[in-house]
Amino acid sequence: MDYTDSNTKSHGSKESPGANYFIYQGLVTMAGCVVAFLTSAAMGYTSPALSSMRADPHFSITREQESWVGAVMPAGALVGSLAAGPLMNHLGRRLTQLYIVCPFILAWALIATGKGIGVVVAGRVLCGACVGVAMSVRIVYMAEIIQFDLRRIFNPIITCVTQLGMLVSFVAGQWLSWRGLAWLGVVYVIPLLPLLLILPETPYHLTRTGRRDESLAVLSMIRRTTEEAELEQEQIDKSCHVRNEGNNTWQKSIGTLAAPSNMWPVGVGLALMVAQQTTGITAVYFFASTILSPGNDGGGNQKTGYINVVMGVVNFLGTILSIYGIRYYRRRSLLQMSSSMIVASLLVLALFFWVQESGEIYPSDVGNSWSYVPTIALLTYILGFNMGWGGIPFVFIIEGMPSWIRGQATSVLIATHWGMAFLVSKTFMWSLATLGSSTTFLAFAIVTAINNHLILRAMPETYRKTTAHMNQVYLDAVAKKEQ
């Protein structure tokens, strides 16, 4: 899409383009919200759907198959995330998102119409692949479009919507069957198409592919003044020239991530993604009903449904609190607070299940009085997770990743996120059956505490830092080492 002619007048004057810059960035945020909602809804589908599948007399599913229904979605997202890097560099950020709309619809339709577990699993894999691509590209697209001083307005909206999709899935699961939930997924995808048709490509990608005039025209639409647009174009020119990213192959791009100026931010980003998943969060989201009702085979659907809804509400409220925290507090402080709440909750869960497994408590005469302990601990865990670990790893990609490797790095980091999600969710049921609930949650607590200690020592503070500032921080660190 060529924006040059439509913006010639803007370039010829130094006047502000008015409210248009805000409208365009608002539309980009709306598209990002749809992608975030889709990701969250796909995550939230598993728990209510599994309860419905168990109760469906026309559908057969085993415990092992349940674990695959949950785990294959992150596995597909892993593949999609790896593909996102070369796709967004070749097709562009906008077109890549546009081209996955139809596969997204197909994925949900396969799940909704599946007669057997094989078709459902195939739909989940395709859905995960679309999520992996969309999530990676959405982060890069917004980072390259949204003006720095407006991120404090728009980024919290994305964070909020990210958890809203899960809440909607949990609530809708109270009334809809697993097939109905899947058809609802088709509806979620449709708004993405008209939004992407009217939005521009990012200036960074346009400049990198030799379309500088189009880049400057887009900047004139999405920045307050022509002076701001021209200044940012100069910064983009410098970044593209220094890194000469235009003709990189995928193999060369991967090698670039290990360059001295990139190892620090990429290493921290990888550590954050691994640490986020080793809190056990994906397994909790997918298998909450199994954790709290391990013997349920369908008869406790109403109870577990209510638990899912309460969990979704707490998850959403935690996100609202995290929006306030991300706006006013340093990222390292939020991670420290989040880790403390997570570790404390996991230790309570481990202690409860250890006592239960030892047979000291939880006989039938006192079972009801103790049954609220794991529920309260789990809800506190979810609240604590959203206060820091839920959002900070992705905030770091936007705020702390150098502009010259953001596309490739985001792809690898999101792939790591989904790869770890697959590993944790697939082994979780095995861990509960083999090691026991107490050992499983104790392991999550210990790993979370260790990760928090190590990462906080290495992670640069990105609070209220521009991309240009963080770029210089990494270059200065390399120069200092070379002295």
Automatic annotation (TrEMBL):
Domain Major facilitator superfamily (MFS) profile: 28-463
Gene Ontology MF term list: transmembrane transporter activity
Domain of life assignment: Eukaryota
A GO-annotated cellular component: plasma membrane
PANTHER family, per database record: GH07001P-RELATED (PTHR48021:SF1), PTHR48021
Database matches in InterPro entries: MFS_dom, MFS_sugar_transport-like, MFS_trans_sf, MFS_Trehalose_Transporter, Sugar/inositol_transpt, Sugar_transporter_CS
Membrane topology: Multi-pass membrane protein
Keywords tagged on the record: Cell membrane, Membrane, Sugar transport, Transmembrane, Transmembrane helix, Transport
Name by which UniProt lists this protein: Major facilitator superfamily (MFS) profile domain-containing protein
Cell compartments where the protein resides: Cell membrane
Pfam family, one: Sugar_tr
Membrane-spanning segments: 21-47, 67-88, 95-111, 117-141, 153-175, 181-199, 263-286, 306-326, 338-356, 376-398, 410-429, 435-456
